[in-house]
Write a structure and sequence with these properties.
Layout: E1 4-16, E2 23-25, H1 52-61, E3 65-68, E4 92-94, E5 99-101, H2 107-117, E6 120-125, H3 132-143, H4 149-156, E7 167-170, H5 185-202, E8 207-210, H6 223-232, E9 238-245, H7 252-256, H8 259-280, E10 287-295, H9 300-304, H10 322-337, E11 342-348, E12 357-359, E13 365-367, H11 371-380, E14 384-391, E15 394-397, E16 401-404, E17 406-413, E18 418-425, E19 431-436, E20 444-452, E21 460-461, E22 464-465, E23 470-471, E24 475-477, E25 481-486, E26 490-498
Parallel strand pairs: 1-19, 2-3, 2-11, 3-6, 6-7, 7-8, 8-9, 9-10, 10-11
Antiparallel strand pairs: 1-14, 4-5, 12-13, 14-17, 15-16, 17-18, 18-26, 19-25, 20-23, 20-24, 20-26, 21-22
Helix pairs in contact: 3-4, 3-5, 5-6, 6-8, 8-10, 10-11
Bound molecules: alpha-L-arabinofuranose.
Alpha-L-arabinofuranose binds next to loops.
Length: about 500
């Protein structure tokens, strides 16, 4: 094999990065809301009971939009239960997670929290047990200025100004038999169409996401997307994708290749959306919202032992390893490579539940390993994704054939004149890489940050971080080229910054 090489060319672009690619997700599930973002009585709690330490970690993470309130939870949820005086809010059974929901936090508290955390709300409507009527009422309550019973009710609840929620999803994973109110593609397509129509009639400025498949392995994929888009095409803006990964076989090379599954999923959904576009002779393009993605498997066994019907049980509390952070890096790179069509994505989830941020009740908030690649991409992947030519060695996998040892993507921020290459070395050996930047490398220096660890199973915790980024020595780019060494099993951020 010749020298590993990445060739970057500013003339060849893939697409603009939508900042909503770095969204996240907060569900009424486990300790995400209660003991996660909200813990009155905690030393860090503000006057509304929100943990300031969690808010500052969310801000540092750089999440842009946060999907709420579910997830599976939303398919049995009455949003009206969570507004108005707290003393009058009902306690309910949450059938999705076999827990008790106190409704102490609801829509208005969530919107207040988003303002504090510097993120935009992305709301899901219940199309499991409910339908167009309730979704319309919710849009009116949130976004209509005043003078109707629902908008005036919002004002009576203390929120005179409309919330102005711009992004909405039409239910959650309606293709899944585990979903409360699961539907066939045709049933969902009809209810989603009628719901979308009235939601947009109430507020034409909103954008809507239709439910795609809850995984590439669903038996109904991709016929589900074709049927749903056939009906909803002119009423929605995006179709959703969900995917979770895990190293269940403890096979690291195969695990790190799982981002190719995400790549194939995205390509297939783009094809189906464009097929429907062609069939309809439509001028409109449907883009993709990958609004649930992450690693999820560590907590599966322990969750089976949790007794049902308690408030905020510790569900889905995966503790992530260094190898999980590497896969998350590969998944981020994969979505960036599809920035022309993947406009929204939500790391599922945000706090305590399969999350980059964890909290100890009454104690500290801490960063998981996966926090770092997300933070780097959210803060530094700005501007345009560039096509690259990568020359590198490969390894053989059962599911994906030959897989590159080096996963990478380049982005160029024209405002800062900075080019950033994000890359993962999937192999155990260090990799020497030449980066050919052409004119982007004129009078420039390279800043290299890496996330590396000898032990792929290393984790972080409330007592300290084994896995944290390190800045390497700066170097000059000469004649448009720079050579770097990527440690074995590492995530890397290479910033090419002008010196003039
Ligand atoms: O994120 C956890 C769960 O995963 C969500 O509630 C559901 O949509 C998906 O199956």
């Amino acid at each position: 094999m010749n020298q590993t090489r990445i060739v970057v060319n500013r003339e060849f672009t893939i697409g603009e990065i939508d900042p909503r690619l770095f969204g996240s997700f907060l569900e009424h599930l486990g300790r995400a809301v209660y003991e996660g973002i909200y813990e009155p009585g905690h030393p860090e709690a503000d006057e509304e009971g929100f943990r300031r330490d969690v808010i500052s970690l969310v801000r540092e993470l750089g999440a842009t939009v946060v999907r709420y309130p579910g997830g599976n939870f939303v398919s049995g949820y009455n949003w009206e239960d969570g507004v108005g005086p707290r003393t009058e809010r009902p306690r309910r059974l949450d059938l999705a997670w076999r827990s008790v929901e106190t409704n102490e936090v609801g829509l208005n508290e969530f919107v207040q929290w988003t303002r504090k955390a510097g993120v935009d709300p992305y709301l899901a409507v219940n199309l499991g047990t409910r339908g167009a009527e309730e979704a319309l009422a919710l849009v009116e309550y949130c976004n209509h200025p005043s003078g109707t019973s629902r908008s005036d009710l919002r004002a009576a609840h203390g929120f005179r100004e409309p919330h102005g929620v711009k992004l909405w999803c039409l239910g959650n994973e309606m293709d899944g038999p585990w979903q409360i109110g699961h539907r066939t593609a045709h049933e969902y397509a009809r209810v989603a169409t009628e719901t979308a129509k009235v939601m947009k009639w109430a507020d034409p400025t909103i954008e809507l996401v239709a439910c795609g498949s809850s995984g590439r392995n669903m038996a109904t994929f991709p016929e589900w997307e074709a049927t749903v888009l056939d009906h909803t095409y002119e009423h929605v803006d995006y179709v959703s994708l969900h995917s979770y990964y895990g190293n269940r076989d403890n096979d690291l090379p195969a695990y790190l290749a799982r981002s190719l599954d995400m790549d194939a999923f995205i390509r297939s959904v783009v094809s189906v959306a464009d097929y429907v576009k062609a069939r309809r002779r439509s001028a409109k393009t449907i883009n993709l919202a990958f609004d649930e993605w992450n690693v999820w498997f560590h907590s599966n066994e322990q969750d089976r032992k949790i007794e049902p019907w308690s408030v905020a049980p510790p569900l889905l509390e995966d503790v992530y390893t260094h190898e999980d952070a590497l896969l998350v890096g590969c998944l981020l790179i994969t979505m960036l490579k599809h920035a022309d069509r993947v406009k929204i994505a939500c790391l599922a989830q945000l706090v305590n539940v399969i999350a980059p941020i964890m909290t100890v009740r009454g104690g500290l908030a801490w960063r998981q390993t996966i926090y770092y690649p997300f933070m780097h991409a959210a803060s530094l992947a700005r501007g345009t994704v560039l096509q690259t030519r990568v020359h590198c060695a490969t390894y053989d996998t059962r599911d994906f054939g030959e897989v590159d040892l080096l996963e990478s993507v380049a982005v160029h921020d024209p405002h800062e004149a900075v080019t950033t290459v994000f890359c993962v070395n999937r192999g155990r050996e260090a990799l020497s890489v030449d980066i050919d930047l052409g004119e982007l490398g004129t009078e420039a220096k390279l800043l290299h940050t890496t996330l590396a660890h000898d032990d792929p199973k290393a984790t972080n915790g409330p007592d300290g971080e084994q896995v944290a980024p390190a800045a390497l020595k700066e170097r000059m780019v000469t004649n448009g080229t720079v050579a770097v060494t990527l440690a074995g099993l590492s995530w890397n951020v290479l910033r090419v910054v002008p010196t003039r």
